[in-house]
Amino acid sequence: MSKLTLTQAINAGLRRALEDDPKVLLLGEDIGTLGGVFRVTDGLMKDFGSHRVIDTPLAESGIIGTAVGLAYRGFRPVCEIQFDGFIYPGFDQIVSQVAKMHVRTQGKVRMPLTIRVPFGGGIGSPEHHSESPEAYFIHTSGLRVVSPSNPQDAYTMLRQAIACDDPVLYFEPKRRYHAKGDVDLDADLAAAPALDSARVAAAGADVTLVAYGAMLKTALDAASAAAAEGTSIDVIDLRSLSPIDYGPLMESVRRTGRLVIAHEASQTLGLGAEIAATITERCFNYLEAAPVRVTGFDVPYPPSKLEKHHLPDLDRILDGVDRALGRPNSQTGMED
Amino acid sequence: MSKLTLTQAINAGLRRALEDDPKVLLLGEDIGTLGGVFRVTDGLMKDFGSHRVIDTPLAESGIIGTAVGLAYRGFRPVCEIQFDGFIYPGFDQIVSQVAKMHVRTQGKVRMPLTIRVPFGGGIGSPEHHSESPEAYFIHTSGLRVVSPSNPQDAYTMLRQAIACDDPVLYFEPKRRYHAKGDVDLDADLAAAPALDSARVAAAGADVTLVAYGAMLKTALDAASAAAAEGTSIDVIDLRSLSPIDYGPLMESVRRTGRLVIAHEASQTLGLGAEIAATITERCFNYLEAAPVRVTGFDVPYPPSKLEKHHLPDLDRILDGVDRALGRPNSQTGMED
Amino acid sequence: MSDPRQEPEDPRSMHMHQLITADGQRVQDELLDEFVADVDDETLLGLFRDMVEVRRIDVEATALQRQGQLALWPPMLGQEASQVGSVRALEPDDFIFPTYRENGVAYCRGAHLSEVMGVWRGNSNTGWDPYEINVATPQIIIGAQTLHATGYAMGLSLDGKESVAIGYLGDGATSQGDVHESMVFAASFQAPVIFFCQNNHWAISEPVGLQSAVPLAGRAPGYGIPSLQVDGNDVLAVLAAVRWAAARARSGGGPSFIEAVTYRMGAHTTADDPTRYRGVTELEEWGAKDPIARLRVLLQSRGMLDVGAEAEIAAGADAVAAELRQSCISLPDPEPMTIFDNVYVDRHAVLERQRDHYERYLAGFSSAGQGPGAGNGSTDAGTREGSRS
Amino acid sequence: MSDPRQEPEDPRSMHMHQLITADGQRVQDELLDEFVADVDDETLLGLFRDMVEVRRIDVEATALQRQGQLALWPPMLGQEASQVGSVRALEPDDFIFPTYRENGVAYCRGAHLSEVMGVWRGNSNTGWDPYEINVATPQIIIGAQTLHATGYAMGLSLDGKESVAIGYLGDGATSQGDVHESMVFAASFQAPVIFFCQNNHWAISEPVGLQSAVPLAGRAPGYGIPSLQVDGNDVLAVLAAVRWAAARARSGGGPSFIEAVTYRMGAHTTADDPTRYRGVTELEEWGAKDPIARLRVLLQSRGMLDVGAEAEIAAGADAVAAELRQSCISLPDPEPMTIFDNVYVDRHAVLERQRDHYERYLAGFSSAGQGPGAGNGSTDAGTREGSRS
Ligand SMILES: Cc1ncc(C[n+]2csc(CCOP(=O)(O)OP(=O)(O)O)c2C)c(N)n1
Ligand SMILES: Cc1ncc(C[n+]2csc(CCOP(=O)(O)OP(=O)(O)O)c2C)c(N)n1
Ligand SMILES: [Mg+2]
Ligand SMILES: [Mg+2]
After folding, report:
1. In this structure, CATH architecture of domain A199-325
2. pLDDT (tens digit, 9 = 90+) per residue, C269-307?
3. How far is B189 from B170, CA to CA, in rounded Å?
4. Rounded distance, CA C276 to CA C268, Å?
5. Class assignment of domain A2-183?
6. Rounded to two decimals, what is the model's pTM?
7. Which of A175, A227, C83, D145 has the smallest number of CB atoms closer than 10 Å to its CB?
């Protein structure tokens, strides 16, 4: 066991993947000499050479598109998108090529790309540096989407993502980059929880609270605060956003009858919509109240001085819990 | 009143907008001399000149990006994206520029763009020509998204979209391009239903069925078939996909207690998810059953010989209606 | 007023390399000659046969589309020399990234005709296995494949191979950002990639002048990528130009760009009506530069193509066409449940659930004569009656 | 082996226009001289003052960031001549599309210092009204603004104006597809746009050689766009080059591309640590080419800048810095409910509902001392207690 920050855990995961498989390559802007703007790839170019840790020209479509060609040739490219808001120039290659190549070729060509995207807000950055674009990719058939919330998952899930024969969008909770945790660097990948599995992060009986990425920490804090007030919250860390592992969610909701989903992304067609709709479909008779979404608002990410109002925090999550429990709160009487 | 096809109605709407406002410009690939691959812009370059109906180089980001600059200068660009699947190269400009410019400039700069996108399947076309990408834009704050289902709406809503000071994605139901209908070319825009309003397309009492674009026709057919079997369906034509006009939906669901949403787009985070989640939030105590989604599957759009299996048809919608009514059907017993 | 050193080159000032003139004369080209020094008359005849077959395929496929057997077809008429000359310049290990129009290239590489037709009949998005013939699937998103070719070529370098990758693109494609980024990456990594641009003068209804007022081959030097303009209706010159580029790439010289100047004699696709946007003079002018006719003259002048030989070739092409027709119309419709196949390599629980559901749903129809999906787009509300058990 | 006519130009063979040498000598340039024939010593002194002020602003903003008053700052150190020379070449009606780094440009155009600071303090995404000073908001998405400049310029043509649009970009930006598409559109529509590329040799940690092995100014001719390479540390040459381009545009000559060769003497932003990727020799080398130092020498040699005059200018710059600091630290925090403002022009029912909800939610805290949002990222679960009425 090593105590690592989340960035160190990702770095270790990349290092291990580079060691284990000569077909693994890293591509991105500033990932080489600099080691990435977050130092996630620190030291890797030095140790593995500039033919495996590749500083690319400044062009996201170029990064993804050449990675498609490399995958065509049997490589396993790991692309870094510098910040969430810079993924859109590569959107066409992701949606029309990466996601569709396997089905297009009737299974002949595989796209085992991993696309790493530091995502989310709360770090005081300017525009385009704090977005949560995961819903675009969750809606895109052919992709897998995951997001770890802690160093151990960051390490294990990254290795699983790189080993996975499908393309994986790997969203890194950048607000939690410096969070430390124990990481078992020798954990057996096969024995580890599957890449597409959810995890119960805290057990509770009254309400089910679903979160992922950086929001998991806030959800756990909310659960502690609620416990002090006598409310017991079952917190589920989604880990996989596509596909969603509905088993643990359904098990929980069928016990609690109440569901709250929290995420930073905007509400309309944010992941909460899918979870609310699916759980309602599959657990309708168990629900005591409508699933509640606590999310970013339907606004472009605001200037950093205002981000604390956009991001769901402990108080807003507890407000959502109140709503799920049918306690009068700020949204009461606003059904119309 | 004129009897027009849906393409003719759009053509008339463009013509009228070009006549009424010298700041209106059309930009797109093949829209000039050819009149567009669907002939939607037929004759417009001839009548308004190549400075107002502009054949652009083959580059979608270029089309949207220069339209942003034109809007900056006070123009009202109407961009044509040739087919749904070709919008992604312009995605970055739409999401990071068009959608955010007004808020970025604290309201100083307006982006009254209209982006016309022929969308959806059922026309026997190759890959990338039958997609339903609307969810990506509905999830994007700062955009409006609409889709007409008939010639009159196509005409009126297009004029309203062009007149609107916000950017509007205007999704044209290409499968219905040749559908004919009465169009009042002199309808008063202000008196017409608002661009962001939904419409009850057929009145019913047992189930609420929501659809938009080309699916509306299938929904109406399903309602007729159901009526013959004694089931009365309230069909709502959404018209506006962002924002959604929840008033008529809520009114209907509170009467029927049952909701079915049909669309061609893939299920996961397709618009049905948002409607199901929101209606559940706002009408929980009125729902007799979980909202049902009848949608395309979570697969890349299939080759055209298979598209009839992907696209919800009358039978699949009626299957969904059965489910909403609690009648045993193909999904019964599949809650887990 | 402006700096003369940096004035844009005049289009007419760019040299178009040629080895066979429009009237069938073999002419010299200082750069290209050495690359076809080994091409004997037999080889030339082979190129002729290829072109005749490709044209015959085009005619047959167009007919099949008219007869409702294909959903769509993108004609190659007029571009046979560019397609045949380029693909015949390559080694089997060289990897090809084509657009939707390079069906002649795929055919020459050994794609089965049924595989080629499958895409245009609507059965599948690719017919062939890319790794079997080293040809990627036809790319519809304009320009996207040039990045794939570049990435593949980067992989070739990493693997220490001497092979090359070639990305086909049209004149219209040169406007796309992806093509630019391909050249940036290719130059930066000195990737062994060939950008083979068929300037067929049209992007659907848009003339090449709308994409660029100067020759397309003039773009590449700005990236440090050598380029050539070649007569795209001259199969020998195309062959030579691609060999030139491939030789550069194999010897570590990095990327090259070739503009093959040709002409789309047919419609953009069978759905297109070119009479709406172009006149007959242009067609006539280019008809006089036909790639097959000029090689016929040359071969005849060398005594390689008497009436008998030509008839034999035509008969061979007819046989190809017959096989094409047969294999096209006998293609079985794909199985409904295959829409769920190959979306993922690994198990995907959410999709699996949808598959199970649809399987049960379909089973509900099995006892009735009526299949599902018949209600689609139909106004006939009666399909449901009796279709369900 | 390759065609010599189309070999890539050698980087060193491109002529870099210059009017003031690094050691302060005024030299002649055949092309540029006529564009600065009217520039007298007073004007030169004005450019000097601008550059000193811009540098002083940069120093102050960097200090404010270190002191926690700004969230981030992208230094302009070393690029003063490029920024000042270019903006001073333009007319007030000419419209500017800058990146995040052109804060000196915005300042010269009349942006209030508090407006400039607002962005970097995290108060807003723009400080100034673009239409008040004809400067668009700072663009962070690399390359996107060049398309906006092109579109705006197309609009200028349509409106029959003689004004121009200018799009600023960096060396790294030249790799983006959007910059390419800008040049395609600009050339196709002969838009009166200037692409002003500051090659400061670095894109964060990536040297310009990674984006291109040949001069960036060499790209434009491939589109039929004339281009110039100019010494970007020579304010007079930059002024002349932009006037050259603007004159071309105003007289219907269409787009131009200018590569201003300069150097980013500071970090990419205050969040960057350039010692990780570049050595001191390069810095020293470029330090010797400082844009301000060379103009100082020239002005002194002309008797325009004695100790008193320089002190006066320095004092003026200090006053600007003081105003900057004052207006920055006194910027009021934005009001919470403004996050819902200006997302749409027209009413948006779904967003309005969210706004109403949040308003009511916030009201729930009003009676308590503790504001909302305090629980964000905090492990202190106690904030909720007592914060709600
Ligand atoms: C990204 C994208 N935009 C638009 C289209 C529609 N489209 C299909 S072919 C074509 C013209 C292509 O012209 P060119 O590159 O010259 O190739 P050609 O068809 O002449 O072989 C267009 C606009 C597309 N397929 N992809
Ligand atoms: C589309 C996009 N990708 C990546 C980034 C991250 N990024 C910000 S500045 C920068 C380097 C830009 O270099 P250059 O164009 O030379 O401008 P300079 O910073 O040197 O002024 C990068 C990669 C971005 N802002 N936008
Ligand atoms: Mg073409
Ligand atoms: Mg730079």
Report:
1. 3-Layer(aba) Sandwich (3.40)
2. 999 999 999 999 999 999 999 999 999 999 999 999 999
3. 17
4. 12
5. alpha beta
6. 0.97
7. A227
